[in-house]
Input
Amino acid sequence: MKALKDTKIPYEHFSAGLAKRLFKVYPAWIQYAGYTTEGSLGEYLYYLEVSVPTENSSVAEPFVISVDLRREVTLSWFGGWHIHVLTKKDETDEHYFSRVLSAVDLIFAEEQVIAVCYRGDKGISGFSIATDSDIPTRLLPKYGEKLVIRSWRASYDREIANPNTHSPD
Output
């Protein structure tokens, strides 16, 4: 990602629409905006990418909101967790942008936590879940050692050991 030095970057149309909606709700994030490019010299398309520094001291990675050439938004955070916010048939851009913002809001308001299953220090699968839900430990993969749960401000952080794994004797 290249840093946004000029707020007049000529984002492609879809990225520009998302940037307008996103920065209206989160104006401080303009400073974290950047872009990725596709195309050839002189004919680049600029796609929005925003890397928001984490507020959770247990997580080093920023929360990233990115647009790709398929007009798909991906949200990603720690341990390889990410979601693709897919467009629905006949959905307007405005409705789609609202769904993207709702997904972001749930994480930043700590209404959802991110859970990543680890094998050693490598995240092997992850999901998001409502903060007040029981964590489905049955979803721990057979060989995962622990489930690491993180919330934006660390209010709901915890780790759950996989009861299905055994230490070698």
